[in-house]
TrEMBL record:
This is DUF4246 domain-containing protein. Residues 78-444 form the DUF4246 domain. PANTHER family: FE2OG DIOXYGENASE DOMAIN-CONTAINING PROTEIN, IFI3P. Pfam families: DUF4246 (PF14033).
Amino acid sequence: MSSSNDKKLCLDKISRLNTNKAFFGTHTTEPKTRVELRMLKASAFIRSAPGWADQLNDEEKCQEWTTQVKDTFNLADKEVEYVFEELQYYARLKDNGAGGEELGAIDNLWTINAASNCELAEEFKHNAAVLESDFDQTESNRDTLSSGFKALVDPFLNSFSSDNSFLLETPVATLGAALDTTLSRTNPGSPEDWFRAVGDLNSMLSADKSAFDKREVIEPVRACYAVDPDEEYVCWLPTDFHVSDDGSVTIPSYINNLHPVRYAALYQTISKVFAKFVPLLEQVTTDVIHPLSLRAVFTRESCITPGMTDPQDIFELFEDGLPLPEEYQKYLFTVNRTYGNTSRDVLCLDMEALYKAYDKVEVYTEPTPKQFRPSGRPIKPYSMRGLPLQATVDMASITLTPENPIQPEGEWRVVGRADERIFSVGLYFYDVENIANPKLKFRDPVISIP
């Protein structure tokens, strides 16, 4: 029997430049029309071809692509013209990507081929294997092994809670001081009594006993960070990542649920992976600050028209024994769902109903894209070098077998809630085995016609 294995590191990057509530409360994606979604698919289809940017000046190749996208994605001439104008713009952005960054299949998505750095991938797999082995041997995790899903580093575990987590007025300088604050809440007596309550920590904390001091514990103020201050606030704990001027990354803080001593080597590898994400984060940030306009904009004035001039036209077609055009069939369906296969006899009995619904029937016409206009985005992206960034770290391994062929988490996943203030999500697939054509799917928001 064969199995498929997919292991990934998820870095939910949060730029400190944009941690205010106003930014995250108003930054939303406008729904796209169906024709725009087809245009995006056509663009991604062309960009999936090796050397696509160099072939944009090849008239014969462009004609071949034109024929393919018209047939495959049902595009009109104006839509194809827009796609190729946008591709010329994308080619200029791609030329700037010295690190191999590529535009993804949807807006605000950038990718890099991890296979271009096999040495880093092997290092990551080697260090992650230690973590995975420890996970398998932990008794509390054994019940989850049969499902094929392993949450190796789970941001939901030991996350911050406004009702249960402690906040300090001043920073904690030592491990002993941290224990002082925490254990004094639940254990009476002297620090020595606290040690006995949690086990023998003398070998670990002997140098820190003198550092015990009382620090005032304060209650979290939900209004400072929660989207809804009336609800309990629970969020993942981010890790500090410092990006140096040369693009290298260090982790000066603790990754939640990943022991910094036991997995010190993995910390180093994660910092290298994050360094690979920095150019992608720079591109995404620049895209978000300078967004492209919608390609095909819906307006009621231009896209909605009356369905017909007179319901009598339908009756005359039936009288002549002619088939109904599609828009007439939609008209009947709007009047009453039972009219999907309306016969002449039923129609004769309900002409009054047809006339009553006459003013309510509308026909939707897809919008036509205007000429492509760049967003004003600089070709060189904004730099994140020298900045402190924050990210939550999530590592998982998924194994699918004939006995368990479906991913336990489900097909779709939303990373974080609004309270996490997540600006961008990075995925690093560090080990993919026995998967013929691994791909990610993305969902776009939709809206009903008003």
